[in-house]
Amino acid sequence: MMNELKNQNIEEDVFYSIILESDQADSVLDLMKKNINLVVDFFDLDGGAIYLLESKNANLFLNFNLSPSFVKNFNCVEKNSFIFKQIFKHTAPFVSSGRLKSKFKDGDADYATMIIVPILYGKKAIGFYIVASNQEKGFEQRDVKLMSLIAKEIGSFVEQVISDVSIKKEKKNFKSFFNLLQDIIIVTDSDGNILEANSFALESFKYERNYFLQRKIFDFWKIEKEEEAQRIFFQLLSNQNSIFLLMAAKGGDFIPIEINSIKGIWDEKEAYFLTAKDLSKAKEAERKLKENKELYSSLVSNIPNYILICNKNEKIVYTNESVLSALGYRENEMINNNIWSVVAEDSKKILQEEIKNSLSKQKSSNCEIKLISKNKGLVDVIVSGAIVKYDEEDAFLLVMTDITNRKKIENLLIEKTNDLEDSQKSLVNVLEDVEEEKNRTMVLAQDLEKFRLAVENASDHIVITDSNGILLYSNKGTENITGFSSSEVVGSKCGSKENWGGMMDRDFYRKLWKTIKTEKKSFSGEMQNKRKDGSSYVALVNISPVLNDKKEVLFFVCIERDITKEKEIDKAKSEFVSLASHQLRTPLSIINWYAEMLLGGDAGTLNDNQRDYLNEIMIGNNRMVDLVGALLNVSRIEMGTFAVNPIKSDLIKIAKGAMSELLIKAKQKNIDLVCDYGKSIPLINVDHKLFSIVIDNLVGNAIKYTPDGGKVSLKIKKEQKGVLITVSDNGYGILKKDKDKIFTKLFRGENAKEKEADGNGLGLYIAKSIIEQSGGKIWFDSKENKGTTFYILLPFSGMKKKKGSKELAK
Q: Whole-angstrom Cα distance, residue 273 to residue 292?
């Protein structure tokens, strides 16, 4: 339903129906009742009501003891009415007065005091609530603030319901999906320990699950040295490209696989999903068939048969080693020469007839001809011909078997008739050799066909284009994923709006083309594409240029995998975190509000013990508020919903504002907080709040993890490539074994947890995400018990504006 809501014009206002249709309807109604009753009871009022928008009108949603005449006459407030227009002019609570009060009085709503409070969803009013009293009432500013808070909480309940409906609709049974996949999937941690394997993987390798999960993944690889296996494993985690290797199955067999990795979350921890394909016998063929010309050379260069290929101009374009050896020529002496220069005069007519039959698609028959060697000797051969593709052009293939020995035997038979029986046996043997060679050629042709079928029926979307990106070939996987058949796309521009592309911005395609065409490097990354029916999907794309000997691009090979389901699962998990965090905000806000009221003496004078206890409650509650805020920030970063609103800014001024708050924390620990701001720092486009969050997290961490009496410094100076921000301390430092995980979500170093129990492990993750999504760079140096220095380099271009529905909480 969330997706449906997003696709509608917000003016349609369907919030009333969303709540009633939600699985949480009862609990949300109960929460709304409690909040309105809280206002009514707290201010000693006579009743209240909640109105929500539906079909552009404001309908009465809940009534709390307001008079029957009020309910009857104001069950629906129509959009074009005076009351509707007056109420929705306001964004804060207000007292009904003047003409508005008269309108209510005309409808028998004769209350002495009526307070109307708008209910907001984001920045849009979705309804309002009314509380009324038969007595004249006066309200202070903090009373109005409480009523606004209640309206905000009701809006938050609506937001929770919308998120809940969306998550329930999109969330799938991940475990069942995981086991139904017909690809080998193995989940490991960053050290290679196997955490889980799907049913297809266990069946492929014939292992029991408990046995398989007790080992490291590279223990099953056919690699002699453990160090080399670990190196390949870490390369696999850090590289988007596939790796080919042999993996042991139960019983001692080794299965060739193509394996790659995708980073994700398993059991709420960072993990890697290793997806593999069982290549089996196709592995060897795939390695040989990089391009047609190389394939022909590797298959036929050393077989006993003589192989010649000539083009339509009767020029020789290919020779194998056997024919070169038999005729005594070097390769450069035959290539580009006329085919007839090596054919004996009395054999030319025979060969011309053979070529004619092949060109007219008549059945080719073996014929005998004589070839002329370099030393003018004659070589007798049996030849058969066929039309083939060579360098993407029609060419004529001649497959020849040397029968010189057979001819000698025939002559010997004529001369020695008394040895006829032995000569006949020899002739049979020669004929058998001819047949055997023919069979070998057939086997090679069958291997080629197997490779073609393997590519054609692969589950991945595989296409081949020319050097300008024009599609030459697409397999069945292309149609399965995009809906476009081969006949529909061949001849069109790959990835254009005519087929499955055109969904990314021009700058993305320009950089992609520069990588594969100009730099002649492989590209690997995620891309938004569309199917034939118009629906979009997320693809993991690998594009590789194939070069000739001159390093020129011959063609491109593109392999694409649909990862839409995996992305939806990640999104559902992030939205769940966001929903859970939202649900914590209401009780925390109420706890904070009541604690402030008690400390302010609203419930009577407190003794010292009571005040101490309340202060502890406030401190603990503020920690929970900080944690909820950090979790919301993480979910908004991962879902890409946070906004970036950069303006030309003075970084030093923003930093000073953030440091003024941190100075109090530094003084509490007697820490010397030093600021060193360079001169001539240019104004840079930054989002004030996001930059403040980064400074607050880094300097706040430095103060927290530096012992009393230590020193923390902040420096901002101009560098050649941008502005460098440095935060240094002489605190506890970072353990060597923790350095590669320091920016990981929810991670805290062992020594940090021992020194400071308070912390959530999210600050550095949030800071790194903000800086990197802004085009900047963040890194650090640290020595245990010596201190840590964090560096941030912001380019002069600053942060780029990004639209979003949420802002990060500071």
A: 34
Are residues 753 and 679 in contact, defined by beta-carbon separation less than 8 angstroms? no
CB atoms within 10 A of CB 48: 24
Q: How far apart are CA 578 and CA 634, in angstroms?
A: 9
| Residues 126, 19: Cα–Cα separation, whole Å | 12
User: Which residue has 């849009």 as its token pair?
Assistant: 124
Q: What is the pLDDT of residues 702-725, one digit of tens each?
A: 998 899 999 999 999 999 889 999
Name, in order, each residue with C-beta under 8 angstroms of 94's C-beta and a sequence gap of 6 or more.
115, 116
Say how far apart CA 188 and CA 209 lie, in whole Å: 14
CA triple 528-499-497, angle to 5 deg: 70
pLDDT at 741: 86
What span, in angstroms and rounded, lies between the C-alpha atoms of 701 and 789?
Answer: 11
Q: Which residues contact 135 (CB under 8 A, 6 or more apart)?
A: 112, 113
- Say how many CA atoms lie within 13 Å of 666 toward its Cβ: 22
Q: 672-677 and 711-718: which strand pairing?
A: parallel
Cβ atoms of residues 805 and 641 within 8 Å: yes
- DSSP SS3 for 773: helix
Tokens 């840590």 belong to which residue? 788
Rounded to an integer, what distance in angstroms lies between the CA atom of residue 671 and that of residue 731? 11
Q: What stretch of H or E contains 487? A: helix 486-489
Residue closest to 620 by CA, chosen among 642, 588, 650, 578: 588
For 112, the token pair is 């002495």
Most confident of 291-305, 336-350, 759-773: 336-350
Transcribe 140-191 into DSSP letters. Answer: -HHHHHHHHHHHHHHHHHHHHHHHHHHHHHH---HHHHHHH-SSEEEEE-TT
Contact between 363 and 357 under an 8 Å Cβ cutoff? The reply is yes
Q: Name the phi and psi angles at 607, rounded to 5.
A: -85, 175
Q: Cα-flanking dihedrals φ and ψ of residue 604, to 5°?
A: 115, 170
Give residues with Cβ within 8 angstroms of 12, minimum separation 6. Answer: 56
pLDDT tens per residue across span 252-297: 888 888 888 888 888 778 888 888 888 775 555 455 545 545 555 5
Do 163 and 22 form a contact (C-beta atoms < 8 A)?
Answer: no
DSSP assigned state of 602: T
pTM above 0.85, yes or no: no
Q: Which residues pair with 397 in a beta bridge?
A: 309, 386
Q: What is the three-class DSSP state of 682?
A: coil
Sign of CA dihedral 748, 753, 759, 763: negative
Q: Which of 214, 236, 233, 235 is nearest to 225 (CA)?
A: 233
> Does residue 633 sit in helix, strand or coil?
helix
Q: How far apart are CA 123 and CA 144, in angstroms?
A: 19
CA gap 728, 699 in Å, rounded: 8
647: β partners: 686
Cα(30)–Cα(141) distance, rounded to whole angstroms? 27
Letter for the amino acid at 635? S
Distance (Å, whole) CA 440 – CA 434: 10
Beta bridge partners of 371: 343, 379
Q: In the sheet where 787-795 sits, what is the strand order?
A: 672-677, 711-718, 722-729, 787-795, 777-783
Element (H, E) at 450: helix 420-456
Identify the bridge partners of residue 787 per DSSP, sorted by sequence position: 783
Q: Name the strand (E) or helix (H) holding 665.
A: helix 651-668
302 in Cβ contact with 444 (< 8 Å): no
Q: Nearest CA to 790 among 757, 743, 737?
A: 743
Is residue 114 a contact partner of residue 94, using CB atoms and an 8 Å limit?
Answer: no
DSSP three-state, residue 727: strand
Q: Helical H runs in 360-403?
A: none
Distance CA 57, CA 77 (A): 6
